[in-house]
Amino acid sequence: MIPASRADALELPSIQALAEAFRSPDAHLQAMFRAALLNTTKQAQYAADGTAYVKTGDIPAEWLRDSSAQVRPYLFFAKEDPAVAKLLRAIIARHAHYLTIDPYANAFALDYRVWEQKYELDSLCYPIILAWTYWKTAGDASIFDATMESALTKALETMEREQDHARSSSYTHKEIPGGGKGNPVAYTGMIWTGFRPSDDACVYNYLIPSEMMAVVALGDLEDIFREVYRNVLKSERAKSLRSEVQDGIQQFGIVFTPNYGYVYAYEVDGLAHSVLMDDANIPSLLGAPYLGYTKPDALVYRNTRRFLLSKNDPYYYAGTNARGIGSAHTPDGYVWPLSLLMQGMTATSDGERRAVLKELLDSDPGDRLLHESFDPNNPAKFTRVDFGWPNALFSEFVMTSFGGRTPLPQGDTSDLEFRGE
After folding, report:
1. Average pLDDT of 144-162?
2. Neighbours of 71 (CB within 10 A)
3. In Å, how far are 69, 100, 136, 191, 415 from 156, measured between CA atoms?
4. Which pTM does this prediction carry?
């Protein structure tokens, strides 16, 4: 095992200064923001090889998805604070190593052992988007070395292979139906994935929120290969795959409902089967504008949002303290702060954003932290004592929705066609 380097202590002056300087007439908000912003400094540590490791919380492993999201708020400070930039470079470097070891794994241990090999399309997308966003915010292309090029190439090759999973892929997992290969799917141009971002197996293996994220990530990948590596061939491969995935979403991922009109399905198989729901874990349908895939006022998204935030969504729960989307991953009736945060960060009115903020504050069981999920009638009942992801996202929500910070840059999808928009 590679030991953590305790001599290279994690000190982030700008993050600590912002936490200390944050003031609010609401003492509860002030305390929760400070705890949320500093949470990642307690989860991250440098390793002896110079990379940085970010555990998810009370599980001593690093998820590609979670760790990318946990450091996202620190991107706001990458250009002005060398200590933050150093940490982000170290985390991005470690992600590159993970992708070269096994692009089908979703989580790793400190010594680079595969913790879980649940192939989740979003686990390929998150490191790409983090690297691209760091490059654009910090103006630092030094992260794009030979190892990163190999990692990004492996991610692209895996996505291309999984377009035709049945004929091109050897990946299986014991938790996936159909003998580990999944239920039958048609070729759609989209990318097959085994698991949802909740780490639960898919029912139908074209997971539309992850396909949306792939469209954004592939646009970033096209940009990186063209502008940094000067590799026109790989850039064009990313561009072509992006177009095929987008066409697949628009052709197969939108279904008609009597009460809401055309909406995005959560999962489809290209054979006329679909699952209409959402899961709190991100990428989610609710979070499509946050991902940079679409706009909050786009017609199909608006229809989908009305469906998701209604009793017709099987995972939408309401209680005295909150109402929002949960997950099959946690007890029935439990709301996830992640879904509330996505609702707030994609809201088009200040009233809705403030209503969500109140629900998030009301979810606090007394430790000033957000947790994985909670009983909306009794927030003292919750899952995951220590879960970094929602706390990081909460600090981003407060900074951008109430603190005047400009949201981080996103990939451009203005060149794509959207059905009915």
Report:
1. 98
2. 24
3. 21, 12, 21, 11, 21
4. 0.96
Cα–Cα distance measured from residue 112 to residue 98, given in angstroms and rounded to the nearest whole number: 7
Q: Determine contact, residues 334/373, Cβ cutoff 8 Å.
A: yes
Task: Report the alpha-carbon angle 328-332-337, nearest 5.
Answer: 75
Supply the DSSP symbol for 310. S
Tokens of 189: 């141009």
| CA dihedral over 319, 321, 326, 329, signed as positive or negative | negative
Could you tell me the domains of the chain? Answer: 26-401 (1.50.10.10)
Using DSSP, how many helices (H) and how many strands (E) does the chain show? 14, 14
242-295 pLDDT per residue, tens? 999 999 999 999 999 999 999 999 999 999 999 999 999 999 999 999 999 999
φ and ψ at residue 237, rounded to 5 degrees: -60, -45
User: d(Cα 370, Cα 341) in Å, to the nearest integer?
Assistant: 11
Question: Is 8 a residue whose pLDDT tops 70?
Answer: no
